[in-house]
Write a structure and sequence with these properties.
Blueprint (H helix, E strand, L loop, with lengths): L3 E5 L9 E7 L6 E2 L4 E6 L4 E5 L4 E6 L6 E3 L3 E6 L5 H14 L14 E7 L2 E8 L7 E4 L13 H5 L4 E4 L16 H14 L5 E6 L1 H12 L4 E7 L11 H9 L3 H9 L10 H11 L4 H14 L1 H9 L6 E5 L18 E5 L7 H4 L1 H11 L3
Parallel strand pairs: 11-12, 11-13, 13-14, 14-15, 15-16
Antiparallel strand pairs: 1-8, 2-4, 2-7, 3-6, 4-5, 6-8, 9-10, 10-12
Length: about 375
């Protein structure tokens, strides 16, 4: 039988078990290029476009709009026009007859192996994916987030190299003891985590608070940083943190009170799902979370850490900065005040979370910044 390629339900993030087809961007018979927008898929976390992993002709669509399917299920089929329809039909019939949900869920390189690392008596949750000899990429999330914030970014990076995603202290599955809550303390913990994992050099990718932590590491330990990518990072010149957001996340106790603050993260507030809100409510109910977030907030707003980092940015050899003009959380960096070696990229149509809202553009920039 000539080559026939299945288009399968992807796995985005640790918790994704299934997805719902929202919209097909291509019709049967269309020529598809690698990276073309193929189909919108809704998950409990967010709706995102699935981009074609290769070029070809879309010969069949087997998943209809509104249909919810498990990870790994068949969405469609790509093949050269020369492949007979009978071969396409036979391929689909065989696939559907043999597919077992959960047995082969197409996780591939994006599958995170989650474990914990002990650092000075504190537990740090880490996720690891990918393999190979290239310098690993280390993802550091933002304020009130966790490693799942990278659900659209880990797979393309892990296809090429090892990936480590870290839950900062006070967040996710890590200890809620944040020490003094300073950037230096959080950065030092990340450095010790990497050393415990026997990682001597890494490509750091940080978002928001995680961006400031990554920049602090690069300034204090330049020998450990192969490249630095800062996504809507706090503490850059020209940015200004939203106290309303930081405090609102802490104070809101009910889903309806929390929703407006989560909507501030996105250019399109409809991307905030019920599951996203419910997960944040559950997280905030964990012992020590509000105290941890409050300590970090107070340090961020006090400006001492911010000023110290601003003075030290010149110690960083180079960085890739990704920003949005409509970021309601940290605002926009001042391009004229950044070190000349920093390259600034604007993502249009996104808010504070371009790695979720505009993952394709963001992933392309991240990939270009990584060093081998």
């Amino acid at each position: 039988m000539a080559e026939v390629t299945p288009v399968r339900m992807p796995k985005w993030g640790l918790a994704m078990q299934d997805g719902t087809v929202v919209h097909w961007w291509k019709e049967v018979g269309a020529e598809i290029g690698e990276g073309d927008e193929l189909v919108d898929i809704e998950t409990p976390k967010i709706t995102n476009v699935y981009e074609s992993p290769q070029s070809g002709v879309l010969r069949r669509i087997t998943a209809q709009i509104g249909e919810t399917l498990p990870v790994g299920a068949l969405l469609g089929v790509m093949a050269d026009p020369s492949v007979p329809d009978a071969d396409i039909d036979a391929f689909i019939a065989e696939f559907q007859a043999n597919f077992v949900p959960g047995e082969d869920d197409a996780e591939g390189a994006s599958a995170l192996a989650v474990s914990t690392v002990d650092v000075d008596g504190r537990s740090i949750r880490v996720g690891r994916a990918g393999s190979g000899e290239k310098i690993p990429a280390v993802f550091i999330h933002g304020y009130s987030g966790d490693m799942n914030n990278w659900l659209f970014n880990i797979e393309p990076v892990a296809a090429d190299r090892p990936v480590i995603a870290i839950d900062l202290l006070g967040h996710g599955g890590s200890s809620k003891d944040v020490g003094d809550g300073s950037l230096s303390f959080l950065a030092d913990t990340v450095v010790k985590t990497l050393k415990a994992l026997e990682i001597e050099r890494a490509n750091l990718v940080g978002h928001s608070l995680g961006g400031a932590v990554a920049a602090r590491i690069a300034a204090d330990h330049p020998e450990m940083v192969a490249s630095l990518t800062l996504i809507c990072a706090s503490s850059l010149p020209g940015t200004s943190l939203s106290e309303d957001f930081l405090t609102g996340i802490i104070d809101a106790q009910r889903a309806r009170d929390l929703k407006p603050y989560l909507e501030m993260l996105f250019a399109d507030p409809s991307l905030v799902t019920k599951d996203m809100i419910d997960e944040m409510v559950k997280f905030k109910r964990l012992d020590g979370v509000e105290e941890a977030l409050s300590k970090i907030r107070d340090r961020l707003l006090a400006d001492a850490d911010r000023s110290a980092l601003a003075r030290d940015l010149g110690k960083i050899p180079s960085a890739t900065v990704i920003a949005s003009h409509t970021d309601q959380i940290v605002g926009s960096p001042d391009a004229t005040a950044l070190p000349s070696s920093f390259q600034l990229h604007w993502i249009e149509g996104a808010g504070h979370m371009p790695h979720l809202e505009k993952s394709s553009e963001t992933n392309a920039i991240i990939s270009q910044s990584l060093r081998d």
